[in-house]
Structures are given as C-alpha cells and as structure tokens.
Amino acid sequence: MIFEDIYKDFPFILSGNTTTLRLIEISDPGMVLFAFRIRFFIPGNTTPPVTRFQTEFSLQARNGCITLNLKELLDSARDYIYVNNYFPQLIISARIGEDTASWSKYVMSGKCNPVDCSKLQSLGYWWTRRPQKADTYIHGSEELYAFIPQINPGDQEYKLFVTVYFRFLLPHSFLLFNWTSGGHTIYRKMMSEDCSYRRIRELADREVFDDEILAYDIYFEGYESQAQRFIVNKDKRVKEFRFRNSLGVYDCIYASGTQSTEVDAKVSTFLNSMAENELSNTSKMYFSSDSGYLDTNEKIAFWKDFVASYDRYVLGDDSRWHQIIVDDVDFKAESYQLNSIKFKWHYSEEVVSCLVERTIMQPYIKRGI
What we know:
- Helices cover 9% and strands 43% of the residues.
- A hairpin with a 5-residue loop joins strand 16 and strand 17.
- Strands 17-16-22-23-24-21-18 form a 7-stranded antiparallel β-sheet, covered by helices on one side. Strands 2-8-7-4-5 form a 5-stranded mixed β-sheet, with no helix packed on it. Strands 9-15-14-11-12 form a 5-stranded mixed β-sheet, with helices on one face.
- The N and C termini lie far apart (95 Å).
- With 369 residues, it is mainly beta.
- The longest helix has 12 residues, at 297-308.
- It has helices spanning 70-76, 117-120, 197-206, 297-308, and strands at residues 2-4, 12-14, 20-24, 31-40, 50-60, 66-69, 89-96, 99-108, 133-137, 143-147, 158-166, 172-179, 190-194, 213-220, 228-233, 239-244, 250-255, 259-264, 267-272, 275-281, 284-290, 312-315, 321-330, 342-347.
C-alpha cells in the first residue's frame, strides 16, 4: 500500500490549502492502524526534532482505499502548531499486518488562491503580497522568500540578480548569488534573501558605483517579469513593521502617516499616617500609526494582509524587532479616493527604553540677553 497526494515533490503544504490524502492498494480487508505525529526542527540546530503531538486511530478500507481529510487532522492539532516554530513536520504512517506506508510534509501556516499554488511551487515567484513596485527606505529592512526546486546533476544553476537604477549612471545589474546543488544554504528548499537598501548600497560601493541609488529590481535569471522593484525613499520618520503574511513567510511594511502615543496610567494608593502614598503604578503605553496615503488597490491589499496577520513586530529604537498586539483598526476604502489605514497597538511585553546616546558637545554659548 502507498500514500497518494497532489503535492508531488513540494516539500511542504500551506495549512489553509490542505485537501485529502489517500492510502491506496490496500489488499488486507482488516483495520488499518494510523499514527499521526507533528514534530519541529530548529533551523541550524543539530539537536533531534521534538515531537509535540502524537495520536493513533484505525480505519477500514473500502475498495482498497482510505481517504484522510488533512484539514481536519491539522485542525485537531492546531494548539500544537505554534506560530514561531519554523516548518512543523506532519508525519502519517499506516500499518496493517506486515504491510506499512509512511507520508510526511512540512506545514506552513498560510493560504493562497488555488490558481497561485503552481506558481509558488515554481522558481522565480516571490512569496509576497506586496505590490510589484514598492517603497523602501534607506534605513529599512527588506526580505524576499522563494521556493527553490530540486537541482539535479547537470541542470543549470540558479542565479539571483539585482538591477540598480542610479541618478546619473546607467542601470547596472549585479549578481546577488549563484546557487547550485549543495551551494547556497536553503532551509527546506525555501530561501530568504536580504534585499535591504543597505545591502544593495554596499554591493554598489564594492563595485565602485558611488552614484545615488533611486531604485532596484530583484529577480531570478530568466524570470525578469517577476522582478520585485524597490523605490528608495529617505524619510526616517516612518514606522517599520514586520509581519507573517498570509502565505506563511515574513514581509516588511512602512507606516508613513501620523504616529502618536498615549499612556493609560492606573495608580493605586494607600494612606499612611494620614498621608496618601502610591502603592503601584501600572501605566501602559499605546501607540497609533497611520499607513499614509494608499493610492492603489495593490497597496490596500498589502495593508489588509498586515491587518489580518497574527504575528506582527515593530522595529524599536534599539534596532530590534519587538512583537506587538494590534488593538483596533480603522479602515474604510472608497473608490477613486486616497485611503489610509489607522491602527492602535501596544507591545506584547514591556520594552525597556535605552539610555540616551551621548557624545562630545560643543562649548555652551548663551545667545541673546
């Protein structure tokens, strides 16, 4: 007996696109014992995988076949599939007498339109909802994810390029990496690439292109139509967020509108010798961010993806990512209008402010009278 699915050589499945799994060619009329497990690997860690969930059940075949509903199986173990774990592995084994079969896939917490499944399983397509032409910032963080199909001996290598557009110089293309079998390290055939302005600036400087960078395109050789363009901006007042998108990987997004802060202070007091003293102060900071003007449907869809996410972070003043909780969203899109999204959020845990940066100061001179 063997397992049959629709995923072919794709090493993982999107939890929102799971269908059925069939066990076929069952010759024994008895009960088939199934074992269902979910375990986790830590990327870069050599420790054995940890099993988080395990159960067994029995079914009887009809016409030599048993059909399992993968969505129901995943839903039954939803509490054990943690967001911050990278690619939990789903393992299903079957046994009847001496006959055995096994099936396994890695699971990503995401969902795509069925018409996009074949694209995401191919080289050259980026796993992002962002517009093809997106804003980035000189201090920003950018990363793109893509699936890398198996390279067989003798197959052509995969090359990732960036085409940089300068203010005065002609556009120039640079090789970001050249991947062959056993070359560029890719976890479970998914690659993530740093596409930040800082990296592209360093690459251009290394090749002695010292002109101002206006924009740049990231693409695989032969897939120029799938290029992701980043248009460089210099505004440092934007708020940078990072979130797990609906495809299960991370995107960066920038709120360029008004940013505000409010404090919700709750003070408890007590009387001591007729004097009131503070017992506790449980003040909490809340922040409000505005996306800035959204003038295309693609920008609106990208922000909707952020709003729908359940794994979001903000870049703090300490240059570290801090997880946030979004409390409220104010958004109403109108056709042929400049729209924006306003949302209120707070840190998931207390963030201690850094000390003020100090430097050598100029002598103090009092001006005026």
